[in-house]
Specification:
Blueprint lengths: L2 E3 L6 E3 L18 H38 L3 H10 L2 H19 L7 H4 L27 E5 L11 E5 H9 L2 H20 L1
Bound molecules: zinc ion (ZN).
The site of zinc ion has 8 residues, from helix 1.
């Protein structure tokens, strides 16, 4: 054997271009000297970036602190404002769903792009106008995330945005129970109105 193909650059090179490696089958390194050097440089760059980052950490912290001191209350106000935005709602829903999925051992594979198109103005089940807020307690009209078939988890195609009220009603009952309840209420209300 006088030549060998490098596994990184895929070029066929003379075996002299490969360093020795006792553990490998042919006693040579799998990639050529040039590729080895490149990867070493890459490692070094990554390391120096990291060192630079660490060195500047303190400095950035000081700048940030100084800004906060000269702008009292601004950070809290901007965090609160952000939580009321669409982005705040999205990240809250995703964080809640992720931890609920982990707790229940059900699938989770959705992201912001899956959720955005589902952000409707009214609850598709009850017609309630939805409020999108990223913080605070839930109200009947809070936009919430529904798993259409609960056991399938938070996966694209199995989620809907519905009102917190509809979500609660649904999660407390089976489909059959909801239908039975609706029928009973309708039947009794009608007979009361007749009487
Ligand atoms: Zn190579």
């Amino acid at each position: 054997m006088t030549e060998k193909i490098c596994t990184v650059c895929k070029e066929q090179k003379l075996i002299e271009r490969f360093s020795k490696r006792a553990r490998s089958m042919d006693g040579l390194s799998c990639c050529c000297r040039e590729c080895k050097k490149k990867s070493r440089n890459k490692e070094r760059d990554a390391l120096s970036n990291k060192l630079w980052y660490q060195k500047n950490k303190e400095r950035r912290r000081e700048v940030h602190k100084a800004w906060q001191e000269s702008n009292p209350g601004k950070k809290e106000a901007s965090t609160a404002a952000w939580r009321r935005t669409e982005a705040g709602w999205l990240s809250r829903m995703l964080a809640n769903a992720r931890s609920r999925a982990a707790k229940k051992g059900i699938p989770f594979s959705i992201d912001k792009d899956d959720l955005k198109p589902l952000m409707v103005s009214h609850c598709p089940a009850l017609g309630i106008e939805l409020v999108y807020h990223g913080a605070g307690g839930n109200r009947y009209d809070s936009a919430s995330l529904d798993r259409i078939v609960p056991s399938l988890g938070y996966v694209p195609g199995n989620i809907a945005v519905i009102s917190y009220k509809a979500n609660r009603m649904k999660s407390d009952s089976t489909t059959e129970e909801l239908l039975m309840l609706a029928k009973w209420v309708a039947d009794n209300t009608l007979s009361m109105e007749v009487a």
